[in-house]
User: Fold this.
Amino acid sequence: MDKTITNKSVSIIAELIGRGVSIATAESCTGGGVAAALTSVSGSSAVVKGGIVAYATEVKSKVLHVSRETLDTQGVVSEATVLAMAKGAIKVLGSDIVVATSGVTGPTGGTEENPVCTVWIAVVNRKGEAKTLRFRDIDRGRQKNTRNAVLNALKLLDVFLKKHKN
Assistant:
């Protein structure tokens, strides 16, 4: 794991432990990378509930309870989908906060609406407070694209934690 991701993860886990707040992940394009970053920190088991890699559409629907209507009308790479993934993971995993990701890391799979390096991220808490981010980046290859998606998810989580103190 690179130093930037490690440092951000250490900071987030310390904040979560200090607050006694649990976290989980619901990931598609990052394939468990956010969960891996968080659980790489010693002591993270005190706050990390788990993660669901919902790479396939049917997992988003059956496990995370993302409605077929949302998937069909908004698409799997959309704000509505990552919000629904996060809300579903709160119910399934019983965490206080969830970070969710869905996007296209390439080199295939891009569309005109969602080209390669388009990623949606959502952070949601039990109160229903949410923050989302859509980012598009330059295609640097699948591994770097995924790494950047993980880093952006951690950054959004950090911003969310700073804004929502309770």
Observations:
- The beta strands are 23-27, 48-53, 97-104, 118-125, 130-136.
- The mean pLDDT is 95.
- The chain is about 45% helix and 20% strand.
